C-alpha cells in the first residue's frame, strides 16, 4: 500500500476503502491470536473440586466431600446454588493412632491348670494373649480343686488374690454378694455382646454382669467297654442295675466297679456331682419359694446313692484326682463325671473308642452341670489389662481353642463348632452333647445367696448316711429343719 502516489478523487476513495478492509482483517486476526495465547497461559480451576474447598465457594455435586487443612467440607445446596459448607463435624478426620495396649502382668487362677492331660495346653492357650498384646505378661496360678474356694476366700477377703480367676457357679453368689467382683457391663462392645450366648446370663447378679462363661459342662454316665465285657455285664440303665454291675465288676475283675465323689473334703465339687442324683430322680433343693430338701424324690436319690456306696464295688475313700487317675489306668469300670474330666482320662491304656457313654442310669433325663464363670478381682491393680484380656478371650479363635482343648462338648461363652472328625474318633461325645440339652444347676432357685450354707448342711447330713448313722429320710429332714 502506497500513500505517496497522486490519485484522482474516485481512485483515492476506492484505494482508501481497500486499505481499511485490509486493516480490519489484520485486526481480527490479531485479536484471535491474542486470545489463543492468553488461553494457553490461564489454568481454570475446576468447579466443585474437593481438593481445596473454601467456605461458600462454588461446587458442582451435592453431597461431595472435601477437606482443607484440618476442616472438612460438604457440597451443599443453598438456594439455587451449590457451595462448600463446613461439615457438622468440622474437624478433619485424621488417621487414627494405633491404640496403645495396656501393659503389666496378669495373674490368672484356675484349678484346671493342674489337669494332668490338658492343663499345660490350657495354660498355653491363655498365655497366647501375650502375642495379641506384647505389652502383657501372663502368670497362671493352679490351685487344687478341693481347696480352691477356701484359698480364694482367704486371698480375696484380704484384698489380694489373682487379677482374673475362674468361679464355680455355686461359689459365685457368695463372691457377688460380698462385692468381690468387678462389674463388666461397660467392658464389651455391642458387637461383642451379640456373640455372647445365653449361658453368660449365669454371670448376672442383681442386674449387673459380674462374670462371663468359662465353661458349662454337662455330665454323662460312661464306662470302660473292656472291663464291662470282661465282667460279663451290660451298661446299666437303672439305679438297681448300677449297684449290681458295680458289685459284679469288683468280684470278677478286682477293679473298682463305680466311682463318684463322696468326701466332705471336696465339698463344693461333691455338691455339684451329687446334684446328678437329685435331678436324676426328678428332685430339687427348692421350688423357688421354699426349700424342698426332704422331698420324696430327694430321699429316693440319697437311698440309691447309699446303695451303690455299700455295693462293695464303690471307690470308698478316693478323691476325684485318685479315681480319675485310676480310670485312666484301666482300674475303674464306670463313672459319672463332667465332660471336661473324661478327655483327661483317655490315653494309651484307655483309648477313646473303648469308652461308652449314655444318659444317667436314673429315672429322669436331666444331669447336673459344672458351671464355671470367669471374672475380675474387684481389688485387682491391673483392671484395664484384665478387661482387655476378657475382650481377647471372647474372640472367635480364642473361644474355639478353649472349646477344643476342654473336649468340644462343653458350652463356652460364644458359639463354637465341634469338628466332625472329633465326633468320629470320640463316640462318647454324642452322649454329652445330648445330655447338655437338659442340664440343671446345683444352685438352689430362690436361695442363691444361701448356697454355701445349704450345701454345707445337706452334705454334712448325707455323710452321716454314708457312715450308717442315719437313714436318708432322717438326714434330709434334719437338714430341712436346721435350714428352715
TrEMBL record:
* InterPro entries, per the entry: Bact_solute-bd_prot1 (IPR050490), SBP (IPR006059)
Where does this protein come from, organism-wise?
freshwater metagenome
Q: Per its UniProt record, what Pfam families does this chain match? A: SBP_bac_1 (PF01547)
**Designated name of the protein:** Unannotated protein
Q: What PANTHER family is this protein classified in?
A: ARABINOSE-BINDING PROTEIN-RELATED, DIACETYLCHITOBIOSE BINDING PROTEIN DASA
Taxonomy, top ranks, is: unclassified sequences, metagenomes, ecological metagenomes
Amino acid at each position: 500500500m502506497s500513500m505517496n502516489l497522486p490519485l484522482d478523487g474516485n481512485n483515492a476513495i476506492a484505494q482508501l476503502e481497500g486499505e481499511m478492509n485490509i486493516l480490519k482483517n489484520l485486526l481480527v486476526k490479531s485479536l484471535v491470536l491474542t486470545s489463543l495465547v492468553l488461553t494457553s497461559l490461564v489454568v481454570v480451576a475446576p468447579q466443585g473440586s474437593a481438593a481445596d474447598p473454601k467456605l461458600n465457594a462454588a461446587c458442582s455435586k451435592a453431597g461431595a466431600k472435601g477437606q482443607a487443612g484440618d476442616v472438612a467440607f460438604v457440597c451443599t445446596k443453598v438456594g439455587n446454588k451449590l457451595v462448600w459448607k463446613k461439615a457438622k463435624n468440622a474437624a478433619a478426620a485424621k488417621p487414627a493412632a494405633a491404640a496403645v495396649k495396656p501393659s503389666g502382668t496378669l495373674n490368672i487362677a484356675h484349678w484346671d491348670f493342674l489337669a494332668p492331660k490338658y492343663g499345660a495346653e490350657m495354660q498355653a492357650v491363655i498365655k497366647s494373649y501375650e502375642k495379641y498384646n506384647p505389652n502383657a505378661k501372663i502368670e497362671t496360678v493352679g490351685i487344687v480343686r478341693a481347696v480352691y474356694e477356701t484359698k480364694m476366700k482367704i486371698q480375696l477377703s484380704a484384698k489380694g488374690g489373682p487379677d482374673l480367676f475362674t468361679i464355680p457357679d455355686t461359689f459365685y453368689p457368695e463372691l457377688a454378694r460380698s462385692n468381690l467382683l468387678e462389674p463388666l457391663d461397660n467392658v464389651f462392645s455391642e458387637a461383642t455382646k451379640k456373640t455372647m450366648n445365653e449361658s453368660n446370663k449365669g454371670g448376672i447378679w442383681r442386674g449387673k454382669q459380674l462374670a462371663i462363661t468359662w465353661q458349662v459342662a454337662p455330665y454323662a454316665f460312661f464306662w470302660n467297654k473292656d472291663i464291662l465285657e470282661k465282667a460279663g455285664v451290660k451298661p446299666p440303665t437303672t439305679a438297681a442295675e448300677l449297684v449290681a454291675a458295680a458289685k459284679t465288676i469288683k468280684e470278677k475283675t478286682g477293679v473298682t466297679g463305680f466311682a463318684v465323689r463322696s468326701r466332705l473334703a471336696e465339698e463344693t465339687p461333691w455338691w455339684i456331682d451329687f446334684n446328678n442324683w437329685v435331678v436324676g430322680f426328678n428332685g430339687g433343693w427348692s421350688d423357688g419359694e421354699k426349700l424342698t430338701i426332704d422331698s420324696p424324690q430327694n430321699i429316693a436319690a440319697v437311698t440309691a446313692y447309699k446303695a451303690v456306696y455299700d455295693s462293695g464295688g464303690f471307690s470308698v475313700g478316693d478323691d476325684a484326682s485318685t479315681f480319675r487317675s485310676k480310670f485312666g489306668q484301666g482300674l475303674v469300670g464306670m463313672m459319672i463325671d463332667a465332660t471336661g474330666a473324661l478327655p483327661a482320662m483317655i490315653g494309651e491304656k484307655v483309648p477313646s473308642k473303648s469308652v461308652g457313654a449314655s444318659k444317667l442310669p436314673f429315672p429322669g433325663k436331666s444331669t447336673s452341670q459344672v458351671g464355671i464363670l470367669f471374672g475380675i478381682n474387684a481389688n485387682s491393680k491391673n483392671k484395664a489389662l484384665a478387661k482387655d484380656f476378657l475382650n481377647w478371650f471372647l474372640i472367635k479363635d480364642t473361644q474355639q481353642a478353649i472349646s477344643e482343648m476342654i473336649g468340644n462338648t462343653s458350652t463356652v461363652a460364644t458359639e463354637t463348632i465341634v469338628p466332625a472328625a472329633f465326633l468320629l474318633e470320640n463316640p462318647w461325645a454324642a452322649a454329652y452333647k445330648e445330655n447338655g440339652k437338659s442340664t440343671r444347676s446345683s444352685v438352689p432357685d430362690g436361695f442363691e445367696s444361701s448356697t454355701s450354707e445349704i450345701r454345707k448342711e445337706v452334705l454334712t447330713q448325707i455323710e452321716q448316711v454314708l457312715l450308717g448313722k442315719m437313714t436318708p429320710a432322717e438326714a434330709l429332714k434334719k437338714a430341712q429343719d436346721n435350714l428352715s
